[in-house]
Design brief:
The protein has helices spanning 2-9, 13-30, 36-41, 48-76, 80-99, 103-131, 137-165, 170-176, 178-191, 212-226, 232-241, 247-273, 275-295, 299-327, 333-362, 364-384, 389-394. By secondary structure, the protein is mostly helical.
């Protein structure tokens, strides 16, 4: 069955298998995440500040580990052990959410889950890049991101059905979320293999600093990420114009559906037109949507804009990773992906803080226009850092 799916997708079996693993793992995680704020609020000391502390610490730890694990995988010339260990750690954290009795317990559980994500992400991306030819990188990363978003759609829906028809207890539902995670581990163990690499293991572990070529990528990426605030701000803006709260989960699911579909399209365009051109298209789309959001004042405008916003990430995510894979030396792919993920992780929190501060001080219009301006500036810097026209369009 997996082989048939791989033939239809025209992708290697390893790429499809990793996509299925990510799909199952995301179902498991997103059965919990939409309900975590409400669950934390029931605990002693819970609230908005506690939730921010939990997610901030967990994401910071994950970002640092993505760099360390990528460099370490390059050192031993093996990626699969890190991928397997990362998914296993995340699975192991799921039951402990159900057992959490305090905010401190949730902090430990989320840090364990994000440790797993940090350990697996860069080696997994390097493994995907190694499994395909140069002309398939965009399609491979696009398929993988689409499977991620498909899990993010199905997970909350499955959790909602369980809460409506099986149990109204969040802790029971958290226990049940471990089932798709366990299936992901089994599938990874059985279906995902790794071709041995010819490079010999390094004699000692080293963490290479970014060189000029890598800085040409992560510099514009850092600027773009600084203007790319949390998706929750879009929902907050929409909630101020829509009468019913029922629109919020609908918009959230619709956003991920758009990302899923556009990820497949963005991957194919990357292989056809080159990653830089597709990154520019995705970032310009983002800037345009943010600029329009600044002046949207009716539900008829906000609803389609929130959904269309998902297209920007669908286009750019696969292209960004394909560009990293194309530029990275063969023996440093894990390290380059580590720097890529670390850059995104470090600038995500300041982006949301900046957006929120501008919103509180000057209103949502200023916040959205600032985000749009930073997106345009990132495009200009990206093109300036890719000096030759042929590289700029086809890199």
């Amino acid at each position: 069955m997996l082989g048939e799916l791989a033939r239809r997708m025209k992708l290697p079996r390893e790429v499809v298998a990793l996509g299925v693993v990510s799909f199952l793992s995301d179902i498991s995680s997103d059965m919990i995440m939409p309900f975590l704020p409400a669950f934390v609020a029931t605990l002693s000391g819970g609230g908005a500040l506690a939730l921010g502390l939990i997610e901030g610490l967990a994401d910071m730890l994950s970002s640092l580990l993505k760099l360390v694990s990528g460099a370490w995988a390059d050192r031993i010339t093996r990626y699969r052990p890190f991928v397997f260990a990362g998914y296993t750690l995340s699975l192991a954290s799921k039951p402990f959410v159900a057992l959490a009795g305090s905010v401190g317990d949730v902090v430990l559980v989320r840090c364990l889950d994000r440790t797993g994500k940090g350990v697996r992400t860069s080696p997994r991306d390097a493994m995907l890049a190694a499994a395909v030819e140069e002309g398939q990188r965009g399609s491979a990363f696009g398929f993988h991101r689409a499977m991620d978003h498909a899990g993010a759609v199905l997970g909350p829906l499955l959790a909602l059905l369980l809460l409506l028809w099986f149990t109204d207890d969040l802790r029971t539902m958290f226990w049940l979320s471990a089932i798709p995670g366990l299936l992901a581990i089994v599938f990874l163990f059985v279906a995902v293999k790794e071709q041995p690499r010819s490079a010999a293991p390094a004699k000692r572990w080293t963490l290479r600093r970014p060189d000029g070529a890598l800085l040409r990528l992560i510099g514009p990426l850092a600027l773009f990420t600084l203007g790319n605030a949390s998706d929750l701000f879009l929902l907050l803006f929409a909630s101020q114009l829509l009468d019913s709260l029922y629109w919020m989960p609908i918009l959230w699911l619709g956003l991920h559906v758009m990302r899923m579909l556009s990820s497949l399209l963005g991957g194919r365009w990357t292989d056809r037109h080159g990653p830089v051109r597709v990154i520019v298209t995705g970032w310009l789309w983002y800037a345009g949507i943010y600029a329009l959001m600044a002046f949207a004042d009716t539900p008829l405008l906000v609803i389609p804009l929130v959904l269309l916003y998902g297209v920007s990430h669908g286009l750019s995510e696969a292209a960004e990773k394909a560009w990293v894979a194309g530029m990275a030396p063969a023996d440093q792919a894990g390290t380059w992906f580590g720097w890529f993920h670390l850059t995104v992780g470090l600038f995500t929190l300041p982006a949301s803080l900046l957006f929120g501060a501008l919103w509180d001080a000057h209103g949502s219009r200023t916040a959205f226009l600032t985000g749009a301006a930073l997106g345009l500036a990132a495009v200009a810097l990206l093109l300036a850092c890719t000096p030759r026209r042929r590289d700029r369009l086809r890199a």
